[in-house]
Amino acid sequence: MCKLVLFGFTYMFFIGSNLRAQGYDYILFKKHDPKKDANLNPQVNSKINPDSNMMINPVYNWNINPLHNDEANPTVNKSINPMNNTELNPQVNEVLNPVFMKSLLPANPSWNGLYLFNGSNDIFGYISVATQNVMISFDNSGAWNGYFVRANSSLYNFFNVFGVWTGMFLCFDNSTGYNLFDKTGKWTGMHVK
Predict the structure, then answer these.
(1) Domain boundaries in the chain?
(2) How many CA atoms lie within 13 A of 118 on its CB side?
């Protein structure tokens, strides 16, 4: 009888804590959800849409375009290239590496990061802020797929896991997050909140 009562309390504890954790996760996600908050949705909010706001579009604003701004281009500026600056390279710096720093993993119960959304505002991936200069990127299954390195106050360049610049980059949307651009400077429709 004692074992049955102990089992019952243990079961209720785990079920209760699991429900609390799921509710907490929903509350955290809700603050980032562009489907629930139009202010976070670039398809609705023209201020954060680079197709509507030329100030945040690297095709028109070359200050935020690494192809036209040598200081933001990691092939020219070696200080923002993780192949040359090991402080920015998760393969060398264990503090940035999610294999060693489990708190960076989206599956970690204490994870509190950003979400990468596709053009339909569905979750496409997760972003962990490792330091003020490096954000770790994960796909929607939680697998590490690269990282962003800060080039200036408005731009992060995207590198694959091995430290090779993909040409893609994030630009601050001057409000709530970032927009992701391909290597030609065209907005992918993806955004980070």
Answers:
(1) 31-192
(2) 7
